[in-house]
Amino acid sequence: MTAQSDPVRTVPPRTVDAPLAPPFAGGGLLDVFRRRYLLKLIVQKEIQARYQGSVLGLMWSYVQPLVRFCMYFFVIGLVLGLHKSVPNFAVHMFAAIVGISFFTETFSSGTRSIVRNKTIVRKMAMPREMFPVASVLVSAVHTFPQLVILFVGSVAVGWKPDPQGIFAGILGYAIITVLGTGLALLFSAMNVFFKDFQNIVSTLMIFTHWIVPMIYPFSKLATSSIHGTGFYDAYLANPLTIGVLLIQRCFWIPTLPDCPTKSNICLDHGNPASVGFPDLPHHVFLLGWVMLAASLVILVLCQVAFSRLEGKFAERL
Fold first, then answer.
1. CA dist 313 to 32, 84, 107, 290, 306, Å?
2. Model confidence over 271-284: pLDDT tens digits?
3. Contacts by 305-312 with C-beta closer than 8 Å and gap 24+?
4. Please, which residues have CB within 8 angstroms of residue 155's CB and are 6 or more apart in sequence?
5. Are 172 and 288 in contact (CB under 8 A)?
6. What's the rounded Cα separation, in Å, for the pair 60 and 305?
7. For 170-204, what is each residue's pLDDT tens digit?
8. Rounded to two decimals, what is the model's pTM?
9. Who has greater pLDDT, 59 or 250?
C-alpha cells in the first residue's frame, strides 16, 4: 500500500498597497556622511581627474598660489607701496588669498559638480549632495599646500601661535566652509536647469578679492569717510569679510612689530590681543559667531532648495 503525497499547494503572491518610492530616499547632508566610503571614492576620482596626465601633479597646488601671490605683491605691495605702510604686508595679503581661494574654488567647482557628474546622477541612486560636498573636500585638499606656504612664511617673519589666534583661524575657516558649501548646493542645483549660473558664479568671483581686506588693510576702510555709514555696515555684514579678518588675526596679527605703547598696526609689548580697532573691527569674535550662525542658516535654506529641485535632475540632464 503506497502513501499518497499531499498535493502541492501554491500560495498566491501577496501585494502591498503602498505608494511607489524612489530607490533612494534623500536625507540631505546627513546621508552624505553616512556614505563616507562613497564620498571618499568621489573625492579621489576628482583629484585624479584634475591631475591626470600632469607632470607636476599636486605640486600645481603650490605653484599656482605662489604665482598669484607674487603678482599681487609686486603690483599692490611694491608698485603701490603698501608694503611700507602695512607691516608684513605679504602675510596680510596671502592670509586673505588662501581663504578667498578656498571659497572661490569651492563655489565654482561645486556649481559645476552635478552637471560634470551627470552620468552618475542619471544611473545611480545616491545622495545628490555628494557631489557638491566632494567639491568642498577637494578644494580643502588643494588649499592645504597654500596653508603650508602661509605657515612657513608667517614663521619666517616672527609668527608665534596664541590660543586666541588659533581659535580665530578655525572660526574663520568654519565660516568660509559652511558658506561655500551652502552656495555650492544651491547653485549646483540651479545650474542643472540653467547653464547661465556657472557664468554668474564666474562673474561674482571677480568681486571676491575686492570686498574683503586683502589688497588693502581694514584700517583704511575703518578710518575713511564711509565709517559709520550703511556701506560700512554692509561691508561687515559679509561673512567672507569676517572670515578673512579672523584668518588674518590668526596669521598676520602675531607677526606685527612690538610697540612701546598701543598704536595703530603694532603690538603692545608683543601681545596680539592688544590689536583692536581700527586694525580689526570692534568685537570681531562676536561678529565671527554671528556670521557662522548666518552661514548655517544659509546652508539649511540652500539644502531645502536643493531637495526640492533634485527630483528633476535626471530628466533635465
1. 17, 53, 19, 34, 10
2. 888 888 888 898 99
3. 305/185, 305/186, 305/189, 306/128, 306/129, 306/185, 306/186, 306/188, 306/189, 307/26, 307/28, 309/189, 309/190, 309/192, 309/193, 310/26, 310/128, 310/189, 312/192, 312/193
4. none
5. yes
6. 35
7. 999 999 999 999 999 999 988 888 877 888 888 88
8. 0.84
9. 250
What the block records as the C-alpha cell of 50 is 584634475
The whole-angstrom separation of Cα 1 and Cα 6 is 16
Q: Which three cell numbers stand for residue 237?
A: 555684514
